[in-house]
Amino acid sequence: MSSWLSSAVTRAEAVSDWLAPQRQASLALLRDAKWPTRKTEAWKYLPINVWDNTELQADAAESTDATSGVIEGLNSLDLVFVNGQLQSVPGDDLPAGLTVVSLADASGDARAWAAETFTAVKPARHLFGLVNDVLATQGVLIDVAAAAVIEQPIRIVNVLTKGYEAHTRVLVRLGEHAKATVIEHYVGDQRSKNTGFAEYKVGDSAYLEHYRFALQSGESLSIGGSHFELSARAELSSHLVGFGSTLQRVDVDVTHAGEHAFAKLNAIYLLDGKELFDLHSTIEHAVPNGTTEENVRGIVADNSRAVFNGRIHIHRGAQKTLAELNNRNLLMSDRAEINTKPELEIYADDVRCAHGATIAEIDKKALYYMQSRGVSRSQAQIMLNFGFINELVDQMPNQVLADWLRPQLRDRFAGMEVK
Amino acid sequence: MLSIKNLHASVEEKNILKGLDLEIKPGEVHAIMGPNGAGKSTLGYVLTGREGYSVEQGSATLDGVDLLALEAEERARAGLFLAFQYPVEIPGVSNLEFLKASVDAVREARGEESLSSKDFLKMAREASKKVNLPADFLKRGVNEGFSGGEKKRNEILQMLLLKPKLCILDESDSGLDIDALQVVAEGVNSQRSPDRSFIVVTHYQRLLDYIKPDFVHVLSDGKIVKSGDYSLAHELESQGYAWLKDQPAADEVAEG
């Protein structure tokens, strides 16, 4: 067993909060867990040993830069974790129908639904999901009452600074016909480790607009996921943006638990230098009449490596499912690497499904064409890359977020070179 | 204006241009005709600096500026323009955004002030009208889903906006019906001026009926083997290029 994992198990054994009963099964699994090797399919392309081998050293002089997480003009309800510690929970001035409590302060009904939701949305959890199960003593519970329409976006910010290890959990419940926007926002570029998982239960006919900005970069090590369970006629519009870092993995998993649910999943990743980014996505169509549209686009430059594993599983009897999965990649250098694996598993005979993956180099003809009109090579490159990604940014329902992202994406493209 | 001397160029180690000479003065229109594979398109690519085309020998200057020493974008900024035979589709980049970036870059190089988005839009709309492209084509991806004729007219639109010194039209007539051909020709004719020159590369005399050249050259096996006035185009149209085989190339004559 890895030394880090044994220390995690030891630490987990000391956790004795009210969720301890829910943590037991995961702890038992962890005690027997083997550290992934290159033969472990789920971790095949991510050098997970980096997690084990990275020593963390806190730097007393390092100040917390919470401003890096600010999104101007958004007017969101912010829940901020700094190095895994929840800073504060908003008090009584919340919009009607919205309840927010910290995991530590939960009581009564909140404990009841949280305990139910804790591992149920994604029962088969990978190694770091289990780690989060047993170590995430910090978290928030967000409860949107039936028919409540919460206009103000709820933003969960995770700021990580040098030397910290953090494990946080977000649990969200949307009642019937409820509407809400939840943003998971991760920032920090210093050497730190975190696992951050969010579990969403989206009720009948409810609408969830979801963003995960996995913008940790530099030396940070981050493994997390957003898991959704959709009830009948529920709608999910989810948008993931990932920058790579020393080690980064995000899992976006959706279960169609009720019929006629609709899931739109967009994801973008932009990698440079020696960055890594691993996106795993599993869509379970457990019932008939569900729809999934998944579009994943990535740009991979220099020596970086992207992994995309997208699985759509259509259960026996899940007739009339519509599912589309598309992964398109742009390779900026011949040393960059993309491992893409779209998978369709279909056990029903009356479904419409499509999947595809492409890997292309930047269109040299288009580059030359633009240069021949006076546009510099570097600007042409930025325009081409931006065009490729912007199609998905345009689909974000929240314009403030789209406008906030675009210059950051342009900055990132500006640094990338065709090699 | 344009001075090409003894130009030798190759693609993938295959020699295409084998000692091409061409002098073009301001205001002149030169047509280049010739059989397939003679190097007509290569000339445009070499002059504009396409990757993969290497120059082994010779020189090409535009108003004394050594074109071959410049990056592709610098050549465009120096006033060179190629209307592509096969314009490139660029999904995700709007035509307007592309045109603005081009015009901004070229204006900056000329020391002119950049245009406001509003002024540029107005200019772009007017130019679209001239080439008979609906204004909503400005919002679409560059050449994305355009028909062959629309792509060619979009090239002329770019020429109208960029106001180059020297325009090379690479088979701008191919695949066009007579109406589209007239639009292209009118676009070119409207830009003819004492300080702007054109190279019109074509297989057919038809385009030259609309854009009357001052000189016609026959390009064969990488060299200009015959030059004349407008009447040469008629001659070629009726005789074809078979006579080229019977005629010794210029260097063979010199050596002989």
From TrEMBL, chain A:
Superkingdom to which the source organism belongs: Bacteria
Domain SUF system FeS cluster assembly SufBD N-terminal positions: 14-156
Family membership noted in the UniProt record: Belongs to the iron-sulfur cluster assembly SufBD family.
Protein name, as recorded: Fe-S cluster assembly protein SufD
Pfam family, one: SufBD_N
InterPro entries named among the record's database cross-references: Fe-S_cluster_assembly_SufBD, SUF_FeS_clus_asmbl_SufBD_core, SUF_FeS_clus_asmbl_SufBD_sf, SUF_FeS_clus_asmbl_SufD, SufBD_N
GO biological process, one term: iron-sulfur cluster assembly
SUPFAM superfamilies, alphabetized: Stabilizer of iron transporter SufD (SSF101960)
Gene from which this protein is expressed: sufD
Domain SUF system FeS cluster assembly SufBD core: 166-388
Coiled-coil residue spans: none
From TrEMBL, chain B:
MF-aspect GO terms: ATP binding; ATP hydrolysis activity
Residue stretches making up the ABC transporter domain: 2-246
Entry keywords, A to Z: ATP-binding, Nucleotide-binding
InterPro entries in UniProt: AAA+_ATPase, ABC_transporter-like_ATP-bd, ABC_transporter-like_CS, FeS-cluster_ATPase_SufC, P-loop_NTPase
Source domain of life: Bacteria
Family: Belongs to the ABC transporter superfamily. Ycf16 family.
Descriptive protein name: Fe-S cluster assembly ATPase SufC
Source species taxonomy: Bacteria, Pseudomonadati, Pseudomonadota, Gammaproteobacteria, Cellvibrionales
